[in-house]
Specification:
485 residues; alpha+beta; Immunoglobulin-like; 6-stranded antiparallel sheet; 5-stranded mixed sheet; 8 helices
Length: 485
Amino acid sequence: MRKIFLLLILLFPFFSEAKNVWAFLTYSTFNSPEGPYIETYLTVAGNSVKYVKKENGKFQATVNVLMTFKQNSIIKAFKKYELNSPEIEDTTKNTYEFLDEQRFLVPNGTYDFELQLADKNNPGRSNPFTQSVTVNFPEAKPCFSGIQLVETYSKSESLKTITKSGYDLVPYVYSYYPPKDNRMIFYCELYNMDKILVPGQKFILTYFIESYENQMKFNDFARVKTETAKPVNVVLAEFNIENLASGNYNLILEARDQKNEVVASQKLFIQRSNPNAKLSFAEMFSSTSVNSFAEKITPIDTLKENINSTFPISSGLERAFIRNALKSTDLKKLQDYFYGFWQRREQANPGHAWLIYKEQIKKAQYNFGTRIKKGYQTDRGRVYLEYGPPNTRSEQYNEPTTYPYEIWQYYTLKQTQRNKKFVFYAPDMVTSDFFLLHSDAIGENNNPAWRTVLYGRTLAPNDLQDTQTIHTWGGLSSDYWDLPN
């Protein structure tokens, strides 16, 4: 069986594979009287490291960690240390994860962050992972810290690395909430509200969850508080996400002045898997389709097909409705939903928005449709409809050592992401259906071993977790990834 390792992207998470070390890391930025600092949260899978027996008869693993922050290749901050696992008595019961939290005091600026991990007891190559990190806390302007997701918290009895504002915060390192997790706890700090308001004056603090795809706000996951302006206002809050549908979301925090104008905001991407959620679709039927373009679509099969075609650009809750809508025989209900779907995207002229999208469906069908799938049902069609046509599209169907593949590049994605790429491949070598193998875009499947999978047509590497560039005669995938045509 071919292994595919998925990565769910937050602000800066990634898997590391130094030999067989599997880790996940996120970070957040905060301000303090001593200056700004970057806080890193690293978790290592206990079953991915080698344990050695100690003098007390117990077993322990050790990971060598090197973190560096550079500007113009000059090291501004670094830490090199050994991260030890808890001592255990039975190495067959090492399915836990062990955590590490570090703080780096750095001035405002943009840094190249590099992480290297290596198993001390199982030496091998150490592959560096890099990411750009920006620290920006203006002196007199209201601004939020980064948002830290929290596993658990308690009142602090002594000062520790995990202590903030009198609480010990155990970090929740992932951006992904599986079905078993029904609480989302988060911590954030708001600075400088007293600089624009009279000390002690009130302001409005809101936090809510919105759809990542269309910024639809969910009233069931929204809170409003009145706060008093201070140098630092602390937010430690949580949502019950038991009935948050599977999908991609943003967690939003906003500070509003007495004119109800947003003076500071912060956003964090999260993902939720929740197939058993008890969903409420009431917010989707706040508008009626009477005398609208949707009311004119009377063949119910046509209407269902139109609704199904919106799946690539739908939010998690909308996708949940679509799965159920195909079983419905209520024409009016489907018309209302279809009208509301487009009204949420273009209030002034929802019918016009549908016609534009309908043309894109035709293009997706022409370019990506197969004998058994419609264009919008394929991975390439979904990406095309969700993000638009790529700026570059490198096609390679006849390399001697790889499956047929394409690499798409977007210079700008959803107005916030820069230089994002998608790798599609056709493992059956017959149909024109290309599957998404890897992407570095937020919310997309990220497979660190994508090159290994791509070259799986002719190679059978010993280490299926190998992420190194594979050099073979005629292979151009790395060139296309680095510099697409």
